[in-house]
Structure to design on (137 residues):
């Protein structure tokens, strides 16, 4: 059975956490920031995961890869980790497939474009906000 999934693991490291005494679990307000940004990342990917052509397809078989986007947060130990993943499986064969999705006429897989977008637009504000919260605590 093929268990491949499209994943993007983002390990959050900040310069203030380089000393052992600051390597701790996240406080509730810090965890809320990490979760807020994780949820926003999934919303952003889903918002861009549109425009697919489903010619002559069973309506029950479409939209699975868009619905499959989710996040996982690991904040109990440093480094903190935010994972964006998609475990959607095919309607007919049950195999993972999101890593094969691409736009017509393009070679780049769509999940790679989505992860690149996250790296450019969402990670810097996440690191900035989380660092400020850690410094405040």
């Amino acid at each position: 059975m093929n268990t491949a999934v499209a994943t993007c693991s983002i390990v959050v490291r900040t310069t203030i956490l380089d000393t052992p005494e600051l390597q701790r679990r996240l406080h509730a307000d810090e965890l809320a920031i990490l979760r807020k940004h994780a949820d926003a990342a999934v919303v952003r990917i889903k918002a861009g995961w549109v425009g697919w052509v489903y010619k002559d397809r069973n309506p029950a078989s479409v939209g699975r890869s868009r619905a499959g986007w989710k996040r996982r947060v690991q904040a109990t130990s440093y480094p903190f980790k935010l994972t964006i993943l998609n475990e959607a499986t095919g309607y007919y064969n049950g195999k993972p497939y999101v890593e094969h999705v691409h736009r017509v006429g393009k070679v780049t897989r769509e999940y790679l474009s989505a992860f690149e977008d996250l790296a450019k637009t969402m990670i810097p504000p996440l690191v900035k906000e989380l660092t400020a919260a850690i410094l405040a605590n």
Q: What stands out?
A: The two ends are 46 Å apart (CA to CA).
